[in-house]
Amino acid sequence: MQRRDLLKLLAASAGLQISPSIAAAIEYGLDTAPLKNGALDSLQLKNISVLAEMIIPTTDTPGAISAGVPQFIATIIESWYEKAEREIFEAGLTRIEEATRAAEACSFFQASPDLRNRLLALQEEEALAYKASQGATSAFSKEHDANSPFFAKLKELVIVGYYTSEIGCTVEQVYAPMSGSYEGNLDFSDFGRRIVSME
Amino acid sequence: MSTAPADFDAIVVGSGITGGWAAKELTERGLKVLMLDRGRMVEHGKDYPTEHQAPWEQPLRGKPIKDLYKNEYPVQSKNYLFNETTRHFFNNDAQHPYANPDAFTWFQSGVVGGRSLLWGRQVYRWSDLDFEANKSDGHGIDWPIRYEDIAPWYSKVERFIGVSGQAEGLPHLPDSEFLPPMAFNVVESHVKTVIADQFRDRIMTIGRAAVLTQPHQGRAACHYCGPCHRGCSAGAYFSTQSSTLPAARATGNLTLRSNAVVDSIDYDATSGRATGVNVIDSNTFVRRRYTAKLIFLCASTIGSTALLLNSRSEPFPNGLANRSGTLGHYLMDHTYRTGATGVFPQFTHKLDRGNRPNGIYIPRFQNIDKQDRDFLRGYNFQGAARKLPLLAQANATTGFGAEYKHSLRNGPWIMYLMGFGECLPNSNNRLELDHNKKDRYGIPQVRFHFEWSENEHKIRADIMREAEAMLVAAGAVGVNAFNNVGLAGEAIHEMGTARMGDDPTQSVLNRWNQSHDVPNLFVTDGACMTSSSSVNPSLTYMALTARAADYAAAQLASGTV
């Protein structure tokens, strides 16, 4: 992606969350479909755990599994997603599971890192094509798109789950919920991390 | 008329920004006051259950509870603050509906303290540019007051509530009595300099906020946690709970009844006075009546006017205090959801710390000394710069894995500018009662009629053009102008419908917020507004309330009302 395009996209997406008032200004209408229940099976949960950790791995800070992201994803899929969203998500899990069985005769969570990366990258390509087709430069695109492809759903849940977790806030970032003052000209190099507050 | 003594000297209907002020001012003048609110009680501190709740403590990490919101909060859930950290302060739309949410968005609180708990806390004085606007261009009727009438009351209110801000000496946006201003961040400072250099007709200043930057009146300074709207047990922002309610209670003259739905006001034709209010307990549905010598309506713009419209009698078949026929008409709001965003990658090496509950402000710069635009009146900008929110950056960045994760540890800044434009008073923009649609208390529901005028659309076009020009001049990239024209009410600056004026045939209230028709009846919330200005209205509501309470108490003492 061109840097210019990235910035445009950033500006567009950022509008959704830059502030309460701008969020109100450009994000409208909550998804209001009924809840859908039903538990994921253990294979799905294992694959979700591996996928979450692939997106936000353990590095010099803990990754998605340590932060409880798989449990968060399961909760959303089991008790919050609409039926159609869940079907997209489960179909994505099935696709990568079947592709792994064909290639390495094992489950995705047991596959070689190389195969896992290739399969996930393929899913991302699909999601990027979908995003491009949606004209993602509009600042008025909805935050929650029920029709987005598997990878977009997965990544969104991993990101929300990780960066709202205690580890994501306090270890991966500098958590300053009550700093007592506002300082607007600090050097990033003194922190090496984002400074985050409670909202 | 009953010869029994009145239960109270004064009844104040509503406990929000103006109700709290009316209760404080009247009780401090020795009046026995009953303050009524249809919402449940919220005690300062103890009833702020989500204050300082960490992100990981929130159910579903902030995702909406879809069925509940759809069924019980279809209007309120559109509010920018509505989520599980604030839902307990909002109106339950299923229990308190209105007839046509597709015509007007009515954001309401459902608790004592009202929207004083949830407001944006931006406070600015109006000037004669505003008070003379109707007279100058002939839209609406002339205000019965000028800046000099209200200026001392602005001072009184500011000294009590505490207003942080920077004096700028602008005649058309008079300075308040300020506590120290909040700080700009590095990007805002840069943009301020660019505006000073390249846009000589305007300035940028820090937002003027009813948030304390130093201890004040027994309340603590802001600790910069950010989400004021969850409630602040430190009392660092002005709310009824933090400020006016404690003052009113301290007099020993206040009786507060929550869960008290006022359905009508009684009128006695012999004395020509309002005699009391009829109240329904929202838990038990038991009805009762309270009497008083003075009635203050502070039930919000829509709430107060709806109550008057529902108080019908032989002398007032079209609603109490409505001999003029203007009650319900001239509903206004500000233009909203128009502006621009831009990204500042050149400041990526900088960070901020602290969640500042305030932004920047660019005072109106159009049509000040002369008509220099193709529209009447004008607009101001409010906005802020901040680091690009992580979740937005994360979703917009391709890839996954260690490199992806570490790339999210820093990012560029983004700034938004959003215009608030003045709305012309128009008789067709109005509310009425739908007697075929009743709520669970049997009270007719409010029905709205509202259309934006060509003038407001022209204002929006100029807002986009100017916002984009300033961001581009400041070196922003990816500048994105937006204009999402929504329903009126969304700026939550709804006002008018019981306007002030000198002519009783053209207005509901006189220069003291006193009914022309019913001298012991006062309306001091947003309903009283004769024009909308582009300036945030809450400070003016407070000043008008304090002024009216002083006048009413003097009239009562002298036996005039």
Number of structural domains of chain B: 2
Indicate the mean pLDDT of chain A: 83
Q: Greatest chain-chain interface?
A: A-B, 85 and 89 residues
Specify the overall morphology of chain A: globular
Termini separation of chain A (Å)? 30 Å
Question: What is the radius of gyration of chain A computed over CA atoms, rounded to a whole number of angstroms?
Answer: 18 Å
Number of domains of chain A: 1
Helix-strand sequence of chain B: EHEHHHHEEHEHEEEEHEEEEHHEEEHEEH
- Quaternary structure: heterodimer
> What CATH first level of the largest domain in chain B would be assigned?
Alpha Beta
User: Would you tell me the structural class of the helices and strands of chain B?
Assistant: alpha/beta
**Biggest β-sheet strands, sense, barrel of chain B:** 7 strands, mixed
What do we call the CATH topology of the largest domain in chain B? FAD/NAD(P)-binding domain
Secondary structure tally, helices of chain B: 12
Strand content of chain B: 15-25%
| Fraction in helix of chain B | 10-25%
Strand percentage of chain A lies at under 5%
Q: What is the name of the CATH architecture of the largest domain in chain B?
A: 3-Layer(bba) Sandwich
Task: Please state the structural category of chain A.
Answer: mainly alpha
What's this model, at a glance?
The complex is a heterodimer of chains A (199) and B (561). Chain A is mainly alpha-helical and 199 residues long. Chain A has helices spanning 3-14, 20-26, 42-55, 69-79, 83-104, 113-133, 150-163, 166-170, and strands at 174-175, 183-187, 195-196.
Q: Would you give an account of this structure?
A:
The complex is a heterodimer of chains A (199) and B (561). Chain A is mostly helical and 199 residues long. In chain A, 53% of the residues lie in helices and 5% in strands. A two-stranded parallel sheet of chain A has the order 1-3. The longest helix of chain A has 22 residues, at 83-104. Chain A is globular, with a radius of gyration of 18 Å. The model of chain A is unreliable at 1-35 and 137-142 (pLDDT under 50). Chain B has 2 domains: 1-51 and 62-162 and 238-328 and 495-561, 3-Layer(bba) Sandwich (FAD/NAD(P)-binding domain); 169-232 and 335-421 and 451-486. In chain B, the strands form 4 sheets. In chain B, strands 1, 2, 6, 7, 8, 9 and 18 form a 7-stranded mixed β-sheet that branches. The longest helix of chain B has 20 residues, at 454-473. The interface between A and B is large, with 85 and 89 residues.
